[in-house]
Amino acid sequence: MSESTDLLVRGGTVVDSVGTSMRDVAVRNGVIVEPDALSEPHVVDATGCIVSTGLVDMHAHLGEPGDEAAETMRSAGHAAVLGGFTTVLAMPDTHPAVDSAAVVDHVRSIGSSALCHVEVAGAITLQRSGKHLAPLGELAAAGVRYVTDAGFGLQNPLLMRRALEYCRPLGLTVGQPADLRALSAHGHMHEGEWSSRLGLGGAPAEAEEIMVMRDVSLARLTGATLHFQTLSSAGSLAIVGAAARAGVEVSAEVAAHHLLLTDSDLVSYDTNRKVWPPLRSSADVAAAQTAVESGVIDAIVSDHTPHTTDRKERAFDEAEHGTVGLETALAVALTAGISVSSALRALSWRPAELLGLGDPTTRSLSAGATADIVVFDPDLAITSKASEMATLGTNSAYEGIELTGAVRATIVAGRLVVEEGKVVA
Amino acid sequence: MNHLLSIDDLTAADIREILRITPSFAEVAERRISKVPALRGQTVALLFYEDSTRTRLSFEVAAKRLSADTLNVSVSTSSVNKGESLRDTAETIEAMGIDAVVVRHRSSGVPMQLTKWVDAAVINAGDGWHQHPTQALLDCFTLEQQLGDLTGRNIVIVGDIRHSRVARSDVGAFTRLGAEVTLVAPPTLLPAAPDTWPVRIETNLDRALQRADAVCLLRMQRERQHEALVPDLREYATLYGLTAQRAAALGPDVPILHPGPMNRGVEIAADVPDLDQVLVVDQVRNGVAVRMAVLFLLLGSGAAGMPAPALVDDVETEDAR
């Protein structure tokens, strides 16, 4: 379907950052228009569905360049739009790492093969080695707004301070996976009753919390914009909440799987549920759900990490970390009991704001806004199967689990790319 | 019972049944022809990813005394092979048409993972820090030979509990049989969340030994001192080793178990293993009988629900030839 086809999303309930209303949404030439402006539009049936601004994933590993056996921009883009994401922030842990303007340009150009918008995150340090700062000014000039060493939290406190100071005037947000590796070393899962029972090395929640505490202090010291990636422990969320109340401007995300799965779900040593940070206790999961509802957590992310089977069909302690998640993030959040409006705030409005996408008014489906739209049935339950996913990654933590909430249609810049739950582009 | 992966999969009744039929298998070893045809025509693969001569030999002898064919699959433990596909290995073995896989692996969970890819019965011969169920069964059998019913007995387990599959298995087996278990270790060598284990925790060995009915020692790996888990092995031996004085204080009637191999001078003082109450040799002997019982229950007529006493007839038939 070409971009110039007029679209009418009919019969749904619009929930956007402005409010909730029963109305139709009309699209012409990539933007939202008044419905009476259309003559013979293609009708997208949204009966019984929620219609909202397209989802924004600020944390996904897309494989390309360098790991095309596990994922390509094209397959990741299909997965993204099937999950209702219209924009995805590509993490810089590619091969080569995104540590120069040349690589930014390359990733952006291959990103155009994806059905969704692809934003590019840069690395903080050269080759994500945690040793020397990458040319951050060059990255910013190339249009990068967010830098992270993705998967490797900056361990050295002096280097972290320097990175925060240097990034501040460049308008770069620093993304930090909070993990004090000297303390979490030899951990393959959350340290607690289940690691004890399963005989697996544990990583204590404190390894995350100490790093969050340190970096809140450094954010206060430097006045920089700091974003915590994939927080997983109740203690971390309490620290971030207290920092916000004290006026320290930090933001935080949680991965969808940390809203639903716990360490006890590793009882059969399913390596597809081996993720980092690890699945934590049920108390941590409950705290994460509460933090999303209260707004302490700004964003829910997929932390989509595709792998080929050989990296997962290994002993648990030798298997790679990560689960695919683009196609399931919204359903996982809803299945975890997150309300529709909180889920949309954390999966669309707030991450768009944090990434500086467009102007704030585009987070509503009002006339003149870019037509990035998701249509989903919040009550439709589907049993999740990795073999039916569009991602090339085979590692789904949700195999055989019934998830409630299904994306029915996705429109990217006015182009209908998913209809009736299938890619149509 | 399709597999034996963990003591935690067994009920007290399951354990008692295995221990009940074990003597009839122990008896086989005493016979002139120490072999019964219970598993004739069946093949048991011994898949050892980690060196363990004594456990592998024990299973091999057990299988052979039941007339099973055995297949030794030695998998290189070199670091180059780290991260090999478990599924590839499992499917290779499966293609050979085997009836049971006895697996030892340095990583916790591998026996359970293998059950996804093989139809054969999987027997855990030790996985990482997780479980070593036949060790726990033979420890129970050995202790019952000395103490009778373990109900209400206080069994002290001393040493590197955190990294010990033997401790995890023993705790599950002993407590199922009604014993009270006390773990003794420096906090660095206790498991995470010890309060979730059905045990008493004690950090002072002398105090724990005062009311011990039996003592299980664990092997102390030399690497632990390099991981800052203990300052050094000399201090460890002083605080947590079974010294000659501690053994004397126990008295001669308290059985002492060790899964082997022993580090003389570390968890057990040099001359203590020679005391009569140290049952290492009994453990090895009983290990074969217990493993025969397990193989029989998983693969033999026991698997079809036939009562074990039928086996005794088997023994006599074979012997009479």
What order do the helices and strands come in, and which of them pair?
The complex is a heterodimer of chains A (425) and B (321).
Chain A: E1 7-10, E2 13-15, E3 20-22, E4 25-28, E5 31-33, E6 42-45, E7 50-53, E8 55-60, H1 73-82, E9 85-90, H2 101-111, E10 117-120, H3 136-141, E11 146-148, H4 157-167, E12 173-177, H5 181-184, E13 189-190, H6 193-198, E14 202-203, H7 206-222, E15 226-229, H8 234-245, E16 250-255, H9 282-294, E17 299-301, H10 329-335, H11 340-354, E18 373-383, E19 402-412, E20 415-419, E21 422-423
Parallel strand pairs in A: 1-6, 2-7, 8-9, 9-10, 11-12, 12-15, 13-14, 15-16, 16-17
Antiparallel strand pairs in A: 1-4, 2-3, 4-5, 7-18, 18-19, 19-20, 20-21
Helix pairs in contact in A: 4-7, 7-8
Chain B: H1 12-30, E1 43-48, H2 53-65, E2 69-74, H3 86-95, E3 100-105, H4 110-114, E4 121-127, H5 133-147, E5 154-158, H6 165-176, E6 180-184, E7 200-202, H7 205-209, E8 214-217, H8 233-240, H9 244-250, E9 256-257, H10 280-299, H11 310-320
Parallel strand pairs in B: 1-2, 1-3, 3-4, 5-6, 5-8, 6-7, 8-9
What would your notes on this structure say?
The complex is a heterodimer of chains A (425) and B (321). Chain A has helices at 73-82, 101-111, 136-141, 157-167, 181-184, 193-198, 206-222, 234-245, 282-294, 329-335, 340-354, and strands spanning 7-10, 13-15, 20-22, 25-28, 31-33, 42-45, 50-53, 55-60, 85-90, 117-120, 146-148, 173-177, 189-190, 202-203, 226-229, 250-255, 299-301, 373-383, 402-412, 415-419, 422-423. With 425 residues, chain A is α/β, with parallel strands linked by helices. Chain A has a single domain (53-360, 379-401), classed as TIM Barrel. A seven-stranded mixed β-sheet of chain A has the order 3-2-7-18-19-20-21, covered by helices on one side. In chain A, helix 4 (157-167) crosses helix 7 (206-222). The radius of gyration of chain A is 20 Å and the shape is globular. The termini of chain A are close together. The relative contact order of chain A is 0.17. The model of chain A has no long low-confidence stretch (mean pLDDT 96). With 321 residues, chain B is of the alpha/beta class. Chain B has two domains: 7-132 and 284-320, Aspartate/ornithine carbamoyltransferase (Rossmann fold, 3-Layer(aba) Sandwich), CATH 3.40.50.1370; 133-281, 3-Layer(aba) Sandwich (Rossmann fold), CATH 3.40.50. Helix content of chain B is 39%, strand content 14%. Chain B is built from eleven helices and nine strands. In chain B, the strands form two sheets. A five-stranded parallel β-sheet of chain B has the order 7-6-5-8-9. Chain B has a four-stranded parallel β-sheet with strand order 2-1-3-4. In chain B, helix 5 (133-147) packs across helix 6 (165-176) and helix 5 (133-147) packs across helix 10. The two termini of chain B are 33 Å apart. The relative contact order of chain B is 0.17.
